From TrEMBL:
Record protein name field: TonB-dependent receptor-like protein
Highest taxon, organism lineage: Bacteria
Domain TonB-dependent receptor-like beta-barrel: residue ranges: 444-957
Single GO cellular component term: cell outer membrane
Subcellular location: Cell outer membrane
Residue ranges of the motif TonB C-terminal box: 977-994
PROSITE patterns, sorted: PROKAR_LIPOPROTEIN, TONB_DEPENDENT_REC_2, TONB_DEPENDENT_REC_3
Length: 994
C-alpha cells in the first residue's frame, strides 16, 4: 500500500561581552587525520572530458578536524571522508542515508523512525547521531557553518541541504567543541559543497521495493558559470524528490504489501517475582485482552463478550486458553498481566503503523561570488527548501476502560437482558475504534537560509594569512497538522446515547445543544458525517513553529613564526549566535493563552477544558517561546616539535574556546593532541583529549508549558497526600553538559611497499556529565526530600497563598560513559591482473565496548545499552565496499552488518525453577537475544557517452527480514534504527555532466 503526501492546511540583542582567548599546550603523539581516508578513485571519464578542474592542492583543502589551514598539517582528531564518487555509487534519493550507514553513526533519525508517533514533531526529520550520543550532541555543518534547526531541539534537517553540489562529507568522530562550539560532543559532520562548480550536471532516478511500494523519484540539476573574466561566479541548483512511503498495514498482523514478518512479539509479564520462574516471557502473537477490533466487554459478569462487524455479540477467543474471571478487575485466568498469547488477533494496531513516512523534498540553492582581488572573494548563498512528510501512527484510536450504560439503545437486546439478569447497569468496555478514520500526521518544514561572507588571503607582517568572515540568517517554519483525531470529551459524550421520542440521541442535553450526534461503538457501523464532524473537527491538532538563527563569525589562520621543526600554525576567531523559537498550537490542545491563534474556530464546549487544553486523543501540542544568545572566541595552535629523517615528524595541536551563554554564563572547552609520523614507513600515531560542551537547547530551556491537576499526591515532608497543580515547563537554569573525550590511534598510510594500502585503528573514551534529563513530579520532590537541593525550587507543597504546585522540569543529573574503537582499511589496485581500470576495497567497523547511562536518581542503577539491539548501539557494526571502475563501466558491491545482541542488559535470563527474585532494576526473563543482520547491496554504472551514464542499485539484495524487537505492549515490534524494515529495493537512473 502506498501513501500520498497531503498538504497541511496551515502553513536580541547582542550582548557586549569581551571574552579572552585561551591557549593550550601539551605533548601527545598521533598520526595525521587524512591517513584514515582511502584515496578516492580517479574521476570518471565524463568528468575529465567535461574539463573539470583538477583537484585542489593539499594546501587548499581544509579538513574539518581542525580550523588551521596549513600545508602539510595533520590534525590529531580522526576524520572519515565520504567523497562524491562514493555518494554517487550509493545512489540514494537522500544523501542522509549514505552517511547514516557509517558504523560510527548510531541512533540517527530519518523517514523510517518515529512513524508510530503523533506528537514528537520529528517524523521524517533526517538528523545524525554520532557515537549513539543523540542528534542533539552531534554538530552538523554546511561548508563549515551552522544551519538553522528544523526542530526545537536545534538539529537541522539534512533533507533541506543542496545535495547535488556536495563534493564530500567530513565526519569528525570525536569531541570538537574547542574548534566548532556547542553540540560537538559526539563529533562534527560537515557537508562541503563545490563552490567553484562550472558546467552543467543532472541526475534522474527512480526506485521501488520488491513489494511494489515506496515508489521514488529524484530529479536534480545544477549549473555553474563564470563571468567578467572569471571574477564573477554563479551557481544554481534545484532538486525534487518524492518517496511515497510504506504502509500502513491493517489491524491484526497484516503488514503493508506481502510482508509477513510481523508476529506481535511481546514480552508478556507473568506477574511472578519470587517463586523461581521468570517474570517476563518472550512470546509471539501477544494479544491484549482489554479491547478488540469492534469492541469487548472487559470486566464484570459479561466479561468476554465481543462484537463482530455487524454488531452481533460472540464469545471472545482469548489466547493461552484464557478464561475471563468476570470480576471487577477484568482478570483473565490462564493469561498474563494484560496479555494472552494467540487467540483472536484481529484487534492489533501495531501492524497498522507506517513502516516509512512518505517524504517530498523541494530544494533551491544559489551561490554568487565575486573575486574583488586575486585572493579576495565576496560571496552570497541562498538556500530555500521545503520538506513534507506524512505518516500513520496506527489504525483507529484504541480505548480501554470505557464505562458503558446498559441502557444504551445501540446495544443488542440480548446484552441489555444479560445486564438485567446480572443486576448491573454499566460495564467496562474496550475497542480499537476501527470505525473511526485513521489518524494521519502531516508535517511541512520550510527553510529560508542566507549567508554572506568575505574570504581570502592577505600578507601581514611578512606572513600570509587566510581569513573568513560571514553572517548567516536562517528561518525554519514547521507546520504539523494531524487529521482524524477525536476530542476525548466529545467522544465520551457521543458514545453515551439514549432514546428520546423514538430517536437515538446523545444523552447529555448540553452536549446535544453543542451539536453532539451519537455513535454506535458496538460493531463496525460507520458513524454519520455529523457525528464524525463533532468528535473529530476539521480544525484538528496543529502546531506552527518558527525558528530563527542568526550567526556572525570571523576567523584567521596563518603561520606567524618558524621554529626548529617547522612553522607554527595558528587559527583564531570570534563568533556570535542568536537562537529563537515560537510555537503556536490550537486551543483544543494548548488551551487558550496569549500565544493561541484565533480561537473563533474553536467554539466553547462545556465538555472541554479551555484553560489548559489537552482535549485531543493525541496531538496535544502546546504554546511556547524562548531565545538565547551566544558569544564565543577560540584559538588553535599547531606546534611542530620534531622533523628528523631518523626520528620522524611530530607536532602538538591545542585549541581553546571561551563561550558565554545568555542563559548560563561562561563555559570553556579545550583540546590537546598531537601526531607523530614515525620513522617506520607509513606508520603514524595520533592522540587527542578534549573538554567538550553541549548547551541546553530551546526545547529544554523554554519547553511549551502544560498544566494538569494531580489529586492524592504524596508529600514526603509531612507524610500526607495533597492536591497539586503539575506544570510541565522548561528550565532556564539548566547548565551546559560537560564531556571529556580521549582518543588514540595508529595508522598505516600508503607505505612504499604497498602504496595502495591504508589502515587505521582508533580507540575512544567519552564521558558526559551533567546530562540534561527529565524527572517526574514525584522524583523532583523526593530528590529534594533526600537532600538534593537542585530540585527544591521546583515545587511548593505548603503554599498558603495559592495552590500547591510542582514544576516538572529537566535537570543536570544524569551521565553517559561510552568507549570503543574504530577500524578502517582501504586498498586500491590499479590495472588489476593487467586489466584497464581500478579495483578498490574499503571497510569501516566500530566496536562499542560499553555505553552506560546513569540516571543519577536514587533507586536506579546505571544501564549499559551497548549490544542491546532493541536500541541503536550494537556491539559491532561494519560497512564494506568493493568496486571495479574503468572508462566504460563500474560495478560496486556493498555489505552492511551488525552483530547479534540482547533485548536489554538489565534482564536476568533464567529457566523456571532456577530464577532469582525479579526486581525493577533487574527483571528476570526466559529469552534475551536479538539476532544481528547482514545486508548485501549491488550497484553499477555504464558510460553511454563521455558525458552521460546509466546506473542501477539494488539494496538488501537477499530481502533480509528484520528481527522482532519485543515490546511490553502491542506496538510495532521492530527497530528501524538498526534493521531494514522495507526489504529489497531497486533503483535505476541516468546522470549527465557537461
Amino acid at each position: 500500500m502506498t501513501m500520498a503526501i497531503r498538504d497541511p492546511r496551515i502553513f536580541g540583542r547582542m550582548d557586549g561581552i569581551a571574552i579572552s582567548l585561551i591557549a593550550l599546550a601539551a605533548v601527545l603523539a598521533c598520526a595525521p587525520v587524512s591517513a584514515q581516508t582511502a584515496t578516492p578513485p580517479p574521476a570518471p571519464v565524463s568528468d575529465q572530458a567535461a574539463g573539470t578542474p583538477a583537484p585542489a592542492s593539499v594546501s587548499d583543502i581544509v579538513v574539518t578536524g581542525t580550523r588551521i589551514t596549513s600545508s602539510g598539517f595533520n590534525a590529531p582528531t580522526p576524520t572519515t571522508v565520504i567523497g562524491e564518487e562514493q555518494i554517487l555509487k550509493n545512489a540514494q534519493p537522500n544523501i542522509f542515508t549514505t552517511v547514516a550507514q557509517l558504523p560510527s553513526l548510531q541512533g540517527s533519525t530519518g523517514a523510517s523512525t518515529g512513524t508510530f508517533s503523533t506528537s514528537s514533531g520529528a517524523q521524517g526529520l533526517s538528523s545524525f547521531s554520532l557515537r549513539g550520543l543523540g542528534t542533539i550532541r552531534t554538530l552538523t555543518l554546511l561548508d563549515g557553518q551552522r544551519v538553522v534547526g528544523a526542530n526545537v531541539t536545534g538539529v537541522p534537517d539534512i533533507s533541506q541541504f543542496p545535495q547535488l553540489l556536495i563534493k564530500r562529507v567530513d565526519i569528525v568522530t570525536g569531541g570538537a567543541s574547542a574548534s566548532y562550539g556547542s553540540d560537538a560532543v559526539g563529533g562534527v559532520i560537515n557537508f562541503i559543497t563545490d563552490t567553484k562548480f562550472t558546467g552543467f550536471k543532472a541526475n534522474v532516478q527512480t526506485g521501488v521495493t520488491t513489494y511494489g511500494d515506496d515508489g521514488q523519484v529524484l530529479v536534480q540539476a545544477a549549473v555553474g558559470k563564470s563571468f567578467a573574466n572569471d571574477k564573477l561566479h554563479v551557481i544554481l541548483s534545484g532538486e525534487y524528490a518524492k518517496e511515497q512511503g510504506v504502509g500502513p498495514g491493517n489491524f491484526g498482523e497484516d503488514l503493508a504489501g506481502s510482508r509477513d514478518w510481523y508476529r506481535a512479539t511481546t514480552l508478556v509479564d507473568t506477574g511472578i517475582r519470587n517463586n523461581g520462574s521468570p517474570q517476563f516471557l518472550y512470546r509471539d502473537h501477544g494479544q491484549a485482552y482489554q479491547y478488540t477490533k469492534y469492541g469487548l466487554i472487559s470486566a464484570g459478569p459479561l466479561q468476554g463478550t465481543a462484537f463482530d462487524a455487524n454488531g452481533q455479540p460472540f464469545a471472545f477467543q482469548y489466547g493461552s486458553n484464557g478464561v475471563p474471571a468476570k470480576n471487577a478487575a477484568g482478570t483473565v485466568t490462564g493469561c498474563y498481566v494484560g496479555f494472552c498469547v494467540g487467540g483472536d488477533q484481529s484487534g492489533h494496531v501495531g501492524s497498522g503503523t507506517s513502516l516509512q513516512s512518505a517524504i517530498q523534498r523541494l530544494n533551491g540553492y544559489t551561490r554568487i561570488s565575486y573575486d574583488v582581488a586575486p585572493d579576495m572573494e565576496v560571496y552570497m548563498t541562498a538556500n530555500v527548501a521545503q520538506v513534507k512528510t506524512h505518516n500513520q501512527p496506527n489504525p483507529g484510536a484504541s480505548k480501554t476502560g470505557l464505562t458503558i450504560q446498559c441502557a444504551n439503545p445501540y446495544l443488542p437486546a440480548s446484552i441489555s437482558a444479560a445486564c438485567a439478569a446480572n443486576g448491573i447497569t454499566t460495564f467496562s468496555y474496550g475497542l480499537s475504534n476501527a470505525i473511526l478514520p485513521n489518524i494521519q500526521v502531516n508535517t511541512d518544514r520550510r527553510q529560508y537560509r542566507f549567508v554572506g561572507g568575505l574570504k581570502g588571503k592577505a600578507d601581514l607582517i611578512g606572513t600570509s594569512w587566510t581569513y573568513d568572515a560571514s553572517y548567516e540568517h536562517g528561518t525554519n517554519i514547521t507546520d504539523i497538522n494531524v487529521d482524524n483525531v477525536s476530542l476525548t470529551g466529545r467522544y465520551n459524550q457521543a458514545i453515551n446515547a439514549t432514546r428520546i421520542n423514538g430517536q437515538i440521541v446523545c444523552a447529555d442535553a448540553v452536549a446535544r445543544a453543542a451539536g453532539c450526534q451519537p455513535i454506535n461503538i458496538f460493531g463496525g457501523a460507520t458513524p454519520s458525517a455529523g457525528a464524525l464532524a463533532y468528535i473529530t473537527p476539521e480544525a484538528g491538532p496543529f502546531q506552527h513553529t518558527k525558528q530563527t538563527q542568526d550567526a556572525a563569525a570571523g576567523s584567521i589562520s596563518g603561520e606567524p613564526i618558524t621554529l626548529w621543526a617547522g612553522p607554527v600554525a595558528l587559527a583564531a576567531g570570534i563568533e556570535w549566535r542568536r537562537e529563537f523559537y515560537r510555537v503556536n498550537a490550537d486551543p483544543y490542545g494548548a488551551g487558550v493563552s496569549a500565544l493561541s491563534p484565533n480561537s473563533a474556530l474553536y467554539p466553547s464546549d462545556p465538555n472541554l477544558n479551555s484553560t489548559v487544553g489537552s482535549n485531543w486523543y493525541a496531538g496535544n501540542y502546546k504554546n511556547g517561546t524562548g531565545r538565547y544568545t551566544v558569544l564565543e572566541s577560540f584559538l588553535e595552535l599547531n606546534l611542530p616539535i620534531l622533523n628528523s629523517e631518523t626520528l620522524g615528524r611530530a607536532n602538538i595541536n591545542g585549541a581553546g574556546r571561551a563561550t558565554r551563554y545568555s542563559t548560563s554564563g561562561v563555559v570553556y572547552a579545550w583540546k590537546v593532541g598531537g601526531t607523530w609520523e614515525t620513522p617506520l614507513d607509513g606508520f603514524r600515531l595520533r592522540a587527542v583529549t578534549s573538554r567538550d560542551v553541549r548547551a541546553p537547547n530551546l526545547s529544554e530551556l523554554f519547553a511549551a508549558p502544560t498544566t494538569t491537576t494531580v489529586p492524592n499526591f504524596t508529600d514526603p515532608f509531612r507524610n500526607t497526600q495533597v492536591l497539586i497543580i503539575q506544570n510541565t515547563i522548561g528550565n532556564s537554569a539548566l547548565r551546559p553538559e560537560i564531556a571529556r573525550s580521549t582518543e588514540a590511534g595508529i595508522v598505516l598510510s600508503r607505505p612504499k611497499w604497498l602504496p595502495g594500502l591504508s589502515l587505521s585503528f582508533d580507540y575512544y573514551d567519552i564521558k558526559v556529565n551533567d546530562v540534561v534529563s527529565s524527572l517526574s513530579a514525584a522524583q523532583i520532590v523526593n530528590l529534594c526530600f533526600q537532600g538534593n537541593t537542585d530540585t527544591c525550587s521546583a515545587f511548593n507543597l505548603q503554599n498558603a497563598a495559592g495552590p500547591n504546585f510542582v514544576n516538572v522540569q529537566s535537570f543536570n543529573l544524569a551521565s553517559i560513559k561510552t568507549k570503543g574503537f574504530d577500524i578502517e582499511g582501504s586498498y586500491q589496485w590499479r590495472q588489476p591482473l593487467g586489466m584497464d581500470g581500478t579495483f578498490s576495497v574499503r571497510a569501516l567497523a566500530t566496536h562499542v565496548i560499553k555505553f552506560v547511562t546513569d540516571p543519577g536518581l536514587p533507586g536506579t542503577i546505571p544501564v549499559d545499552t551497548a549490544g542491546a539491539n532493541s536500541g541503536a548501539i550494537p556491539d559491532w557494526k561494519w560497512l564494506a565496499t568493493e568496486s571495479y571502475d574503468n572508462d566504460r563501466f563500474s560495478i560496486t558491491l556493498q555489505q552492511r552488518w551488525f552483530s547479534d545482541g540482547v533485548i536489554g542488559h538489565q534482564y536476568v535470563v533464567c529457566k523456571p525453577g532456577n530464577c532469582p527474585v525479579s526486581t525493577a532494576n533487574n527483571p528476570t526473563i526466559d529469552y534475551n537475544r536479538m539476532k544481528g543482520a547482514f545486508y548485501f547491496d549491488v550497484g553499477g554504472a555504464l558510460n553511454v557517452t563521455k558525458q552521460v551514464s546509466m546506473f542501477f542499485k539494488v539494496d538488501n539484495l537477499f530481502d533480509h527480514d528484520p528481527e522482532p524487537s519485543p515490546q511490553t505492549n502491542t506496538g510495532l515490534d521492530v527497530n528501524p534504527a538498526l534493521y531494514d524494515t522495507l526489504g529489497r529495493f531497486y533503483r535505476i537512473g541516468v546522470r549527465a555532466r557537461f
